[in-house]
Description:
Elements lengths: L6 H27 L2 H4 L3 H19 L5 H12 L2 E6 L4 E3 L7 H8 L31 E2 L18 E2 L2 E2 L4 E4 L6 E6 L2 E2 L9 E7 L12 H40 L14 H51 L2 H33 L6 E4 H12 L5 E4 L5 E4 L1 H19 L5 E8 L2 E8 L33 H11 L3 E6 L5 E8 L3 H6 L2
Parallel strand pairs: 11-13
Antiparallel strand pairs: 1-2, 1-9, 3-8, 4-5, 6-7, 7-9, 10-12, 13-14, 14-16, 15-16
Amino acid sequence: MKPRFPLFARILVWLFLNLTVLALVGFVILRGSIRVEALFTGPLGDRVQKVADTIAAELRERPRTDWDGILARYQKTYGVDFLVFRDDHQQLAGPNTVLPPEVMERLAIRRRPPLPPDGEPRHGPDSRGPGEPRGGPGFRGGPPPDDAPPPGGGREGVRRGPRGPAPPRYYVRSTTAPGHWMILPLAIDTGRMPPPPPVRLILHAPTLSAGGLFLDYTPWVWAMGGAVLFSVLWWLPFVGRITRSLGQMTAATEGIAEGRFDVSIDGRRTDELGRLGQAISRMAVRLEGFVTGQKRFLGDIAHELCTPLARMEMALGVLEQRADAAQLEYVNDVRDEVRQMSGLVNELLSFSKAGLRGREVPLVSVPLRDLVERVIGRDAGGVEVQVDMMPDLRVMAESELLARALGNLVRNATRYAGAAGPIMITARAAGGAVEVAVQDVGGGVPEEAIARLGEPFFRPDSARTREQGGTGLGLAIVRSCVEACRGTVQFHNREPRGFEAVIRLANGGRQGTEANR
């Protein structure tokens, strides 16, 4: 029976959980250790700057009344608030927003424009008239003059263009207003002298991902997926070798439990599994020696009992000739007991011979139909037996052992189910094997006894007497004979009633005959 949750799957699941925990821990550590400001000075900032340049190009081509609609369209696309401000904190477009102090401080850091010859600025932060729109009159496109460095004299976020350093961009994490803020230069000015404060594009996002605009998690996902795939491929051979060794040991122990001691376990491993495999191999050799010695002992005892039993039968024959009518009844009772004992001794001899011959039996291609007909004529005892098989079907077996196994099955069926209906013997080829089934329509066997059928001296019904049942060696002889032919036998009940024994042997066709020459 296959396990519900194999060890192979358990190890893989545990490995996956381990990698998941490591990935989460690594993500938390990296997220806390990487400076977010540094991300906006590299390729990430360049990607956001391209969006800002695209917005600037649209704003230059459209009138001021359309700017809010343009920014609203980009906001819907990226899930980010787009705002246009001048460095003097005057908002030109976008939803009305109160900038946090940190952002306003960044906007104020700029290089002051030079004064005109008369020393008085023509336009200042508050030069807009009462009814003048945001940005002042005559606002049109053009490159901004702002190239001021970041605070502290550093060069954070400076992009150098073909004519010198480009205006800086800033990232701000406000403590007074939630979210993330990014300030980028916008290539728009009024075109007047002296120029008004430069124009900035401000992006406000509630989270760092910002719809994938600020921070794209796709490379991280691919990196984690690649790490998981690499780890699985790395561990797969290791786990496969472990489960393969465990599978060999499981198959070996199952074979030992069924009486097959010629198990094969790879002994090249040098770890605990290798030691376990070597221990199983040694145990199989020892058990085979014990079982073989037991069968040889039974055979020797049965052989030694044959001579005194034969003498007893001869003595009973002499007594029968000399006994009177009153004594003849006692003689017949003793003869029945001797015959019962002789039958037991013969079955012990058959069981021990079949078990001892084992691997020494040479297999030949046997015509199955002819052998079955011979067994029926010898062991059916007048009970109807139906045969269903191809006339040219052949099996690889030893003819005497196979006939003994089939004969025991036929006698067993006629004894316990012959009066219930006909006995059926069927055979069919299944790949490289042939399955021979002996079926009856009797009462069957108790389900709890099915697993023990074939054990020596085991009888399903403990209430049976010697007159009603056998010695408990019939099915054990069947199993020994079939295993000596390198086959298998299985017993089970039929539905709705009946019993069936299925013998599986190698196909004795042309290929099997040529292979054993």
